[in-house]
């Protein structure tokens, strides 16, 4: 795969210039993956992928997740955090903390993400999840609204708090993976009056992060991406 190189790329069986949305197979150039002979792609769910500017782009079920960063192909994962964009929901227990669904999310949609404001020191917003023991990885998109105090995340109900770096613009943060049952995930804002924006809170099976999976009333699974090019004799140049 080649990105940013004008196509056709000499000597390559297969090439791609994701910034120009061009693809090469055996010397011929195509504008969309679906027009490539022998190309098949499946994913039995919706999904998101980031652009190089950090904007999240939604993709319909079965659509290849191609941005200027490339083609995103991932294994299946399940996010067990409910209402992971709406922290005003009762699934989130707030203590000395006020939540509002009033933020434009990293997908650019107005009022799709939440804000958390500490009304006293060590304010928390937590969600308890019933789940058998497994390796978990915890992430969230966050940004600073006001203040400069410490903000922390947990997935073990505060037995371990990990300080996170809060950027001025949306950025994805994570805490170390843990193997545990019944995770309780969430945030602690140490300084009264500080406020942060939060979106796409994710606790997923595995020891590393994958792309965000949106949830509401139930956990959600993003199906695996399967991309194939078949029907020719040569080996792909990668």
Describe this structure in words.
Helices cover 0% and strands 45% of the residues. It has strands at residues 14-17, 22-25, 28-30, 39-42, 47-50, 56-59, 65-67, 70-72, 77-79, 93-95, 97-103, 113-118, 123-128, 134-146, 151-154, 162-164, 171-180, 184-189, 195-205, 220-222, 226-229. It is elongated and about 65 Å long. Mean pLDDT is 90; it is low at 233-238.
Short summary of the structure?
By secondary structure, the protein is mainly β.
Distance between the termini: 5 Å
Order of secondary-structure elements: EEEEEEEEEEEEEEEEEEEEE
Structural class: mainly beta
Largest β sheet strand count, sense and barrel closure: 5 strands, antiparallel
Bulk shape? elongated
Task: Label this structure with key terms.
mainly beta; five-stranded antiparallel sheet; 238 residues
SSE layout:
Layout: E1 14-17, E2 22-25, E3 28-30, E4 39-42, E5 47-50, E6 56-59, E7 65-67, E8 70-72, E9 77-79, E10 93-95, E11 97-103, E12 113-118, E13 123-128, E14 134-146, E15 151-154, E16 162-164, E17 171-180, E18 184-189, E19 195-205, E20 220-222, E21 226-229
Antiparallel strand pairs: 1-2, 2-3, 4-21, 5-6, 7-8, 9-20, 10-13, 11-12, 12-19, 13-18, 14-17, 14-19, 15-16, 15-18
């Amino acid at each position: 795969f080649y990105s940013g190189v004008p196509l056709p790329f000499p000597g390559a069986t297969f090439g791609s210039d994701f910034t120009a949305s061009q693809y090469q197979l055996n010397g011929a150039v195509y504008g969309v993956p679906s027009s490539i002979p022998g190309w098949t792609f499946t994913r039995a769910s919706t999904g998101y992928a980031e652009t190089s500017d950090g904007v999240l782009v939604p993709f319909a079920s079965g659509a290849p997740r191609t941005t200027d960063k490339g083609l995103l192909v991932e294994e299946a994962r399940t996010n067990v955090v409910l209402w992971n964009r709406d922290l005003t929901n009762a699934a989130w227990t707030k203590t000395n903390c006020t939540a509002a669904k009033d933020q434009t999310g990293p997908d650019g949609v107005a009022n799709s993400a939440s804000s958390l404001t500490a009304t006293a020191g060590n304010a928390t917003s937590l969600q308890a999840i019933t789940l058998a023991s497994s390796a978990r990885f915890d992430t969230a998109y966050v940004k600073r609204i006001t203040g400069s105090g410490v903000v922390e995340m947990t997935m073990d109900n505060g037995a371990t708090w990990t300080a996170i770096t809060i950027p001025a613009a949306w950025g994805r943060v994570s805490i170390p993976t843990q193997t545990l049952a019944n995770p309780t995930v969430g945030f602690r804002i140490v300084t009264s009056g500080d406020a942060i924006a939060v979106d796409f809170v994710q606790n997923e099976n595995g020891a590393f992060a994958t792309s965000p999976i949106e949830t509401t009333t139930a956990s959600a699974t993003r199906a695996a991406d399967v991309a194939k090019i078949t029907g020719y004799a040569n080996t792909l140049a990668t």
